[in-house]
Write a structure and sequence with these properties.
Strand content: over 45%
Shape: elongated
Distance between the termini: 57 Å
Strand order of the largest sheet: 1-2-3-4-5
Low-confidence stretches: none
Radius of gyration: 25 Å
Largest sheet: 5 strands, antiparallel
Number of domains: 1
Number of helices: 0
Number of strands: 5
Helix content: under 10%
Structural class: mainly beta
Order of helices and strands: EEEEE
Length: about 140
């Protein structure tokens, strides 16, 4: 798949070929807060998390030396989760008696593809948004 005629000698060498300008910028921000509270029903633990991800990259998907098919992808996602539980500790035994969990996720992707080798000056666009929400209650007797 990565063979380039005229570049390879008697020994076959494999490498990644790309003619795209190759910006690849990604940022990941992750924040977590763990907190314990003494309450009338015992110790309560809260684990809160927020994650945000942004990325932009240009990809050479045709693997040819000509600038033919090159999409740029911009994506953003975030997720939030919260877990609250009443932990129980007895020596080396640890468990959670009851608790709740909430997780939300949103992912947004924009893609613009240039069709230089097929139809110069023409581009295609695609926008995909997805979301997910999960909730749970749990307990142990």
């Amino acid at each position: 798949m990565f063979y380039r005629p005229g570049i390879t000698t008697n020994t076959v060498r494999f490498g990644l070929y790309s003619d795209s300008p190759a910006p690849n910028n990604a940022n990941l921000n992750l924040y977590t807060l763990n907190a314990d509270w003494k309450s009338p029903i015992g110790m309560l633990t809260s684990i809160t998390n927020y994650t945000k991800f942004n990325a932009f990259n240009v990809q050479d998907v045709d693997e040819l030396p000509q600038f033919l098919l090159t999409p740029d992808v911009s994506q953003t996602s975030w997720q939030y989760s919260e877990e609250t539980a009443r932990p129980f500790f007895a020596g080396r035994i640890s468990r959670r008696d009851f608790g709740s969990f909430l997780h939300e996720l949103a992912h947004d992707v924009d893609t613009i593809t240039l069709l230089n080798g097929i139809a110069p000056g023409i581009l295609t666009t695609q926008h995909v948004f997805s979301g997910q929400k999960t909730e749970a209650l749990f307990g142990q007797v």
